[in-house]
Amino acid sequence: MQRSIATVSLSGTLPEKLEAIAAAGFDGVEIFENDLLYYAGSPREIRQMCADLGIAITLFQPFRDFEGCRRDRLARNLDRAERKFDLMQELGTDLVLVCSNVAADSLGDTQILVDDLRLLGERAGARGLRIGYEALAWGRHVNTYQQVWDIVRQADHSAVGVLLDSFHTLSLKGDPAAIADIPGDKIFFVQMADAPILAMDVLEWSRHFRCFPGQGEFDLAGFLAPIIRSGYTGPLSLEIFNDGFRAAPPRANAADGLRSLLYLEEKTRNLLERQTAEGTIAPVPPASLDMLFAPPAASRYDGVEFVEFAVDGEQGTKLAGWLERLGFARAGQHRSKDVSLMRQGDINIVLNAEPYSFAHSFFEAHGPSLCATALRVKDSHSAFERAREFKGQPYRGLVGPNEREIPSVRAPDGSLIYLVGQAENGLYDTDFVLNPNATPSGNLQRIDHMAMALPADSLDSWVLFYKALLDFEADDEVVLPDPYGLVKSRALRSRCSSVRLPLNISENRNTAISHALSSYRGSGVHHIAFACDDLFAEINRAKDAGVPLLDIPLNYYDDLAARFDFDDEFLSELAYYNVLYDRDAQGGELFHVYTEPFEGRFFFELLQRKNGYVGYGAANVAVRLAAMAKVRSGSARQARL
Amino acid sequence: MQRSIATVSLSGTLPEKLEAIAAAGFDGVEIFENDLLYYAGSPREIRQMCADLGIAITLFQPFRDFEGCRRDRLARNLDRAERKFDLMQELGTDLVLVCSNVAADSLGDTQILVDDLRLLGERAGARGLRIGYEALAWGRHVNTYQQVWDIVRQADHSAVGVLLDSFHTLSLKGDPAAIADIPGDKIFFVQMADAPILAMDVLEWSRHFRCFPGQGEFDLAGFLAPIIRSGYTGPLSLEIFNDGFRAAPPRANAADGLRSLLYLEEKTRNLLERQTAEGTIAPVPPASLDMLFAPPAASRYDGVEFVEFAVDGEQGTKLAGWLERLGFARAGQHRSKDVSLMRQGDINIVLNAEPYSFAHSFFEAHGPSLCATALRVKDSHSAFERAREFKGQPYRGLVGPNEREIPSVRAPDGSLIYLVGQAENGLYDTDFVLNPNATPSGNLQRIDHMAMALPADSLDSWVLFYKALLDFEADDEVVLPDPYGLVKSRALRSRCSSVRLPLNISENRNTAISHALSSYRGSGVHHIAFACDDLFAEINRAKDAGVPLLDIPLNYYDDLAARFDFDDEFLSELAYYNVLYDRDAQGGELFHVYTEPFEGRFFFELLQRKNGYVGYGAANVAVRLAAMAKVRSGSARQARL
């Protein structure tokens, strides 16, 4: 399909926007009128700029409050239209968006609306231009695509067609199914926007909270599918009003926009194929399906194979000591590099202190931090190809004589995601001299989840990255109080939840998340949770080994006593071990404990899930954040002494 | 009245909150349960801390989902209550907030609710404790104070009373009038919160957007008045859930909270006196009225007498040159200091380059900037006393032999607000040697408005400052697009609008407002608008004098042509002079033009209002912000060359 985006979706001056749009690989651009008004160059110059950049001007927008206007204003409104037609011809675009009238005094009689649209269509048609009529969700009389199609059908003019915008239909919980019945050539243009589901005024929702497909909660494939079935072959365009996007770097944001369209096309194609197979729709012509992006299908992920920390000699020694106290064994040493392997249960942790390596440059930039995550995947080759087709950035580092090459792409924070195939046997034998006598002192079983801290304005970008490249799913956002502000968390999960990545952001300067970000000078891992089958045994061992556990106030346990039916002895045990507790509505239970942070940045969680508990202990995050703030102020006090 | 605030209204750890609350001058504090749970000290330690700080614990809150709970949970819920009663006795507070049940499976039968409340009251009463029952706006069955009073009345137990919260009534557009009919001693507690009017889910609105009285749009005096009439004599307490407050410095925020209560009390007292005088209510006993704060009444403001810029020798010379080109005369020189006076029409501008002065330290901190504003006021003495009683910070600087002393207070940005009384004749004669031959070359008449740039999180604080101390009014917030993010603007006005201060904020790093803030290292003046009666004559003169006017794109004028019935000649003239135009619904017209910024920070606006135009040209702010961004990037380019 021809992929397009509206200038209003990006920040910057008009040339900055156009350059970003071209660089991202879009085929076209909708010119939002204000961007043109505020630009010092002439419409002809803009036309030339787009031509030089290789992008088509797919639409000029918006033309407001026309049809059904007060009769004494009609002539004046037609004059206004002619002036905008002049402008369109200078710009070299033939299509204008006419959105449904919102004026309180506008007329709702269908015949008047039909006549007005036809009149405008005649004026446009006479100049070789076209009108795309769109229902705003807050239009005074017209706010559904069904009404728009009814009016367009009656206007019956070749220059008058339907313009669809997913937001206006889905925000009102409209059913897009009937779009399939509109002749494809009477749909002149399609705008796509996603949004989180918010219980608020629809106009405010639309103006501030739209986002790229895949970042919100609308069923956009369900909206696009009937459009494809209608036979529509025009542009698919993003029109995103979003406060964050207005301030985001336009190049990176435009790249996300293109990725979101590819993701949407894939989902739509899958949906159409499934519906065809199920016989719920008539077969879609292959030519229509083939317009849609078709990357290699997603592979199944099966947990974290290893994580790799970038360290130097000193921090590496220190972190190895921490891990040893947490029950890990020193399982191996790299054959040729300053890289060691710590192991326990199904958990492999690589500490990389090799100079002149990727890890080293990562360490230089961010200090001790997680520089790579290896995910186990059914088919690493197709997983890698999929990531590449979604514009993931492949990475190929130095490969020594005895080393394997594992396909990898850059995560949004610049760290690496290795894709380790099922076929990879003896992964560690090749690179490491393994210590056959290494025996972990603990019984931690696997990495349960890895929580990341990231800048507030990059959350949507991360979500889209994992959804598109790795086919992950995203949970709903939860908002949690830190003593110094709010923290928002949204968890990403592989299908079947074998890999879980809660993403944490904060817009306030002094929260735990913001402190982590400033220590990393960017984003980074916030904590890694290890699952086990007998938490108290693990904590006992860790305490004996001297692991510094995060101290939980006794008042928390008084409240547990009020909320749950625990006997006092068990509560004392929880309190003694600083164990936090949560129970979900289905009776699932979580027991978990945190370490203090390593070097004031990341920390570890030990947890035990019972009876199918699926969350992350959100009920306990506030008490954890308060305890972390106390540790920070204690460290700050020490540093001052 | 006893003035109180809930810990949830402030950021920080519990001790930080309590210290801030005491320092602000509150009499009491509501302990929000989570603040206690997350604190490592025992309830007894908190009790001692409050005693040491001289604040009473007025309330423990909340106790949720009790009345009408599923019958199989009642015994367990009573146990839970007894545990919380233990805690309250440790804390030394006798009152707990019980908010109406929100559980989907809770029972709504009034008799059950009455019985449950009475049962809880008996348990509480047996321990000398009391229950304040509150209707949450989103309660499952109970969401009005009328229902609460009905249930409390029927429960008929001395330990069970009504708890009122302004948000829960006013968010649902409830009428508070009937509160006056509740016996005052059956109202156990009153919580006050303001909020902007938002069309959104009431729970989300309540949890994130409450603000201090005077910062939002609720009629809080109208809510408090019937409470006073009921004979209530208990605490007046702030319970503010606000995302910004959760991250704001607690001491400054608590001070705002106390100021907001004083402001509310004054408004309520005025309302009650007016209602009594009008005979719409029965006379309120003097003892009730006298509980309410009564500062000196506000004085009438009558425009800006002068503004003062902090400069050094070099910047002073440069700014004087700018002002001269804008038509100002060099009207005088200070008798003893390096301070000069520029004058035109009714506008006086003081340029202060005196070393060892307030202006000098302001210049050192902020660079060339507005360091003082003198407002003309009917009675400067009572205006000053009012500001002081509202905890304004008086300022008294060095006074030389021939100088006047003018009462002044610090504005929120640390600059001074001088209060110049009507009686002050010959204000400038005393301090300045005036030049009798100085004749302005321009005809600018007066300062129309002064726009300020301030950090995003301080807007509410500024609004409250001007409302309380100076009795200003605040317009609704408008949101405006800068090419690099959003700008929000809220205008403050003296009654009769002789002084107008639009306040501008931006949460994005790269907007015009954020650039101004970083140049000031804090807040500062963004622009000063001068009004005149013949704008084209003034611009003509200014252009000839070499004033750099902000260049407006021609595309803007093409759009004006489409929107308004101007002839081409007039449009060409507007374009030639870079004049922006706006027309309001009543036919009021604004013509205005901007200079480029002085030293990349503040700039000047020349404007002419016609037919009673009252706004600030919001329709043109986006084009102005885009033009300013272009100037910035031009300057940045030049700086790089």
UniProtKB/TrEMBL annotation, chains A, B:
Keyword Oxidoreductase recorded: yes
Binding-site residues, Mg(2+): 449, 527, 605
VOC domain span: 303-422, 446-596
Cofactor requirement: a divalent metal cation
Pathway: Aromatic compound metabolism; 3,4-dihydroxybenzoate biosynthesis
Reaction equation(s) it catalyzes: 3-dehydroshikimate = 3,4-dihydroxybenzoate + H2O
CDD domains: HPPD_C_like (cd07250), HPPD_N_like (cd08342)
SUPFAM superfamilies assigned to the protein according to its UniProt record, in alphabetical order: Glyoxalase/Bleomycin resistance protein/Dihydroxybiphenyl dioxygenase (SSF54593), Xylose isomerase-like (SSF51658)
Enzyme class, broadest EC rank: lyase
Keywords: Dioxygenase, Lyase, Metal-binding, Oxidoreductase
Alphabetical GO biological process terms: 3,4-dihydroxybenzoate biosynthetic process
Record: residues binding a divalent metal cation: 134, 165, 191, 239
UniProt GO molecular function: 3-dehydroshikimate dehydratase activity; dioxygenase activity; metal ion binding
EC code: 4.2.1.118
Family classification: Belongs to the bacterial two-domain DSD family.
Biological role stated in the UniProt entry: Catalyzes the conversion of 3-dehydroshikimate to protocatechuate (3,4-dihydroxybenzoate), a common intermediate of quinate and shikimate degradation pathways.
Protein name: 3-dehydroshikimate dehydratase
Originating organism: Pseudomonas turukhanskensis
